[in-house]
Design goal:
Blueprint lengths: L12 E6 L5 H18 L3 E4 L5 H18 L3 E5 L6 H13 L4 E4 L21 H10 L8 E6 L10 H14 L3 E6 L3 H14 L5 E5 L5 H11 L5 H10 L3 H21 L4 E5 L4 H14 L6
Parallel strand pairs: 1-2, 1-8, 2-3, 3-4, 4-5, 5-6, 6-7, 7-8
Length: 299
């Protein structure tokens, strides 16, 4: 089933994103965490990110396959262009097709750690649009799988202008993406303004807000700097007052995320994609709070 078909049915779709595990033990722990979320919150799907290194890539693909076949959940595999030729990307796609993974999030990917800019590997892809086109052109895929792509409520950090950003977002839809997941943001006005721009530009696919609960101040500062997102002054003030107390920082992040999610759903967002950072406890707390804040009939 294409994930895009889940949206627009009158109920918000909740989905969870995890990092690939680094060991067999960590993979088992990930499966346990996902199983707990499945049993209690019935997510629409789960995704696993795509590491830059070979072993990380292999574990990510393996984890996606285990989640699908052992837990019976819909899964979405991430796929990036970083450091790979087309042949190497195709080898990963072959494995996903063999495991009947029916949805892929096609991304260019961030520059490797320490690099200032994205460098195209000789024989590789330069943009997510090229990767999407390649996926759609494969005879064993065509229109049979769901393809997601990223969008940026506050614009991609490499965009030269807002118009340039929306042009490339539209290009992803035209290349074959059938839904979009937003980069993290902390001000809902940024998301809804981005929706208005997208619709005015002719983007019609579902646009799912991506929410990352703050669990560590230094970590969220690094993430927002990397992806071009901003932390609202009100939230930063709250976090600064609690910076030395990890428990209170997490509580503040959870409270902020609950308020964000409730408003997003009430104002018509098709669902929420949680960047869990492999911390399912925070995600469970947020979902419990959201369920308490939104009418039961909406779930």
């Amino acid at each position: 089933m294409k994930l895009a078909d889940l949206y627009g049915r009158g109920r918000p779709v909740f989905s969870f994103e995890f990092f690939p595990p680094k060991s067999d033990e960590a993979e088992d722990a990930l499966l346990t965490a996902v199983a707990e979320l499945k049993d209690r919150y019935h997510p629409g799907f789960v995704s696993v990110t795509y590491g830059a290194g070979g072993s990380s890539r292999e574990r990510g693909v393996h984890s996606v396959a285990r989640i699908k076949h052992e837990l019976g959940l819909r899964v979405m595999a991430h796929l990036t262009c970083v450091g790979q030729t087309r042949e190497e990307v195709d080898a990963v796609i072959d494995e996903l097709v063999e495991n009947k993974v029916g949805n892929i999030l096609a991304l260019r990917g961030d520059p490797p750690a320490g690099a200032r800019e994205f460098l195209v590997k000789e024989g590789g892809f330069a943009h997510a649009t090229e990767l999407i086109e390649h996926l759609r052109a494969r005879p064993d895929i065509g229109e049979s799988i769901g393809i997601g792509a990223a969008c940026y409520p506050e614009d991609h950090p490499e965009s030269t202008s807002r118009a340039d950003d929306i042009k490339w977002t539209l290009a992803k839809q035209e290349a074959g993406a059938d839904f979009l997941i937003s980069q993290l943001f902390f001000d809902n006005d940024d998301y809804f303004a981005a929706i208005d721009r997208a619709r005015a530009a002719g983007i019609t696919v579902p646009i799912v807000p991506g929410i990352m609960p703050v669990t560590n101040v230094g970590q969220v500062e690094r993430f927002t700097k990397m992806c071009g997102a901003t932390i609202p002054e009100e939230l930063m003030d709250r976090l600064e007052k609690r910076r030395g107390d990890p428990g209170r920082v997490m509580a503040t992040g959870i409270e902020w995320a609950i308020d964000q999610c409730v408003e997003l759903i009430q104002r018509g967002a098709p669902g929420i994609h949680f960047y869990t950072l492999n911390k399912s406890e925070a995600t469970r707390c947020i979902l419990a709070g959201v369920r308490a804040g939104v009418r039961t009939a909406e779930f």
